[in-house]
């Protein structure tokens, strides 16, 4: 049988080991009841759009995020564009609109960025101005860390975009 001093020296180590195991288990379960959220990626977004009826003809990834319409948008994001038809030199009536996909590192960054976009598709940010004349009505839909943008007056395309966002948010 170990001496009392040996047991006293071993008790702190055993206690520390028990606490470490308990913390590891709690972290794996989400700790305070919150679950860890993994940001959505481009393949998940593309698959959701496809499953919702958006035609995927081309995916342009890693576009310059600070060019054009999105240059004043707050936060850090990756920009991709999903084309529903092969690119053409001239846009024609009836062309299917492309969908801009902005991937933020967190839901909070996406929410802040989405709040900066007005209903007419302009970005309102202090010290920055970018006016864009859209070829159709701009629509912004957010889900988790993803912001989807399309300029269209085509109801089925807009419905498909909303269904895709609902799938991503589930």
Question: Can you describe this structure in just a few lines?
Answer:
The protein has four helices and five strands, in the order H-H-E-E-E-H-E-E-H.
Any overview of this molecule?
By secondary structure, the chain is an alpha+beta fold. The protein has two domains: 1-36; 42-169, no CATH class. Helices cover 35% and strands 18% of the residues. It contains four helices and five strands; from the N terminus they run ααβββαββα. It has helices at residues 4-29, 42-51, 107-115, 155-169, and strands at 58-63, 77-83, 99-104, 138-143, 146-151. Strands 1-2-3-5-4 form a five-stranded antiparallel β-sheet. α2 (42-51) packs across α4 (155-169). The protein is globular, with a radius of gyration of 24 Å.
Which features characterize this protein?
single chain, 170 residues, alpha+beta, 2 domains, five-stranded antiparallel β-sheet, 4 helices, 35% helix, globular
Q: What is the strand content?
A: 15-25%
Order of helices and strands: HHEEEHEEH
Q: Which consecutive residue ranges, at least 5 long each, have pLDDT under 50?
A: 10-36
Number of domains: 2
With strands numbered from the N-terminus, the spatial order across the biggest sheet is 1-2-3-5-4
Q: How many individual helices?
A: 4
Mind summarizing the main beta sheet? 5 strands, antiparallel
**First-residue to last-residue Cα separation:** 58 Å
Mean pLDDT: 80
Structural class: alpha+beta
The total of beta strands comes to: 5
Shape: globular
> How would you name the oligomeric state of the polypeptide chains in this document?
single chain
Portion in helices? 25-40%
Radius of gyration: 24 Å
């Amino acid at each position: 049988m170990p001496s009392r001093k040996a047991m006293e020296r071993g008790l702190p180590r055993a206690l520390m080991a028990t606490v470490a195991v308990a913390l590891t288990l709690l972290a794996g379960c989400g700790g305070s009841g919150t679950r860890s959220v993994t940001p959505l990626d481009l393949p998940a977004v593309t698959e959701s759009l496809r499953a919702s009826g958006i035609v995927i003809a081309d995916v342009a990834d890693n576009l310059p995020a600070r060019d054009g319409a999105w240059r004043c948008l707050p936060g850090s994001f990756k920009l991709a564009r999903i084309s529903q038809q092969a690119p053409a030199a001239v846009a024609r009536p009836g062309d299917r609109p492309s969908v801009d996909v902005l991937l933020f590192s967190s839901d909070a960054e996406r929410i802040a960025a989405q709040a900066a976009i007005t209903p007419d598709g302009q970005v309102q940010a202090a010290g920055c101005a970018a006016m864009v004349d859209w070829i159709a009505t701009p629509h912004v839909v957010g889900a988790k860390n993803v912001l989807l943008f399309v300029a269209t007056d085509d109801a089925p395309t807009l419905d498909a975009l909303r269904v895709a966002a609902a799938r991503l948010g589930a």
